[in-house]
Amino acid sequence: MNNKEKVNTLEEILKLENVSLSYDNKKTYVLKDISFWVLSWEILSIIWMNWSGKSTLLKVIAWIQKIDSWKIIKNYKKLSYVPQKISLDKTFPILVSEFIKIYNPKTTKENIISYLKKFNSENLFEKNIASLSGWEFQKVLIISALLNKPDLILLDEPTAWIDIIWEEIFYEIIKEVKVIFPKISIILVSHNIKLVYKNSDKVICLHENNFCCHWSPLEVSANKITESIFGKYTLPYKHNPHDKTNHNK
What we know:
3-stranded antiparallel β-sheet, 6-stranded mixed β-sheet, single chain, 249 residues, 32% helix
C-alpha cells in the first residue's frame, strides 16, 4: 500500500461545524462559525494571539465550555485534556508516581513505570514533583494523559511555562508520542508559530476578528491573508512532522 492509499484509509475522528460562542447575547463573539476536522494520526495546532479564543476552542472540544450553536461529531472513544497550567504547592511533598495516580486512580505502579519507560523517564518515578524542570513536568502531564489510552489528546499551551530553550525538547516529546502511539491525534494550542509550522500536520489560525483557517503549514505560510496578519512570522520554515508511514501500525 502506498502513502496515498494509506491516507485514504485514515479516519475522521472529530469534526466541528459552525461552532459559535458569545458571552453578550451575540453582540460579539469569542468564537464564530468555526469549522474543521481532525484525522486519526494528525498533530493539529491552534495558533494566534491572546484573547482570540484558542483555549476556549480547546475547552469546547473537551466539553468543558458550553457554546451557543454547534455541531460536533465525535468518532473517538476516549479523550484526554491537559490544561494550560496546573497550580502546585511547592511545599507539598508529592512524588511523580503519586501525582500520576491522582489522575489515573485505577492504574497500577507497574503500568506507570511501563509508560515512563516508553519515554526513557523511569528515573522520574520517585522524584518530587516540585523538583522537576518545566519540560520534565510537561512530560509527566503528557504521560499521565496517555495512561488513559485516549484516541485524542488536547494540550492547552503546553510550552507556556517552559523556557524558550526547552520548547524544542517539548516537540521532541511529541515526536516520541507519535512513534509510540502512531494513531493518536493531538490538538495543541501554541504561541510559537515557527515551531508549530515545523511540527504540525495541520494548523488552525484565529485572531480577534474570529478569522479561521484550517490548512497545512505550507498553505498557511504561503497564504497572503495569513501573511498580512502574522507578518514576518510566516516566512519560509522547515516542515518536519512525524513520520506518517507508521500510522497504520
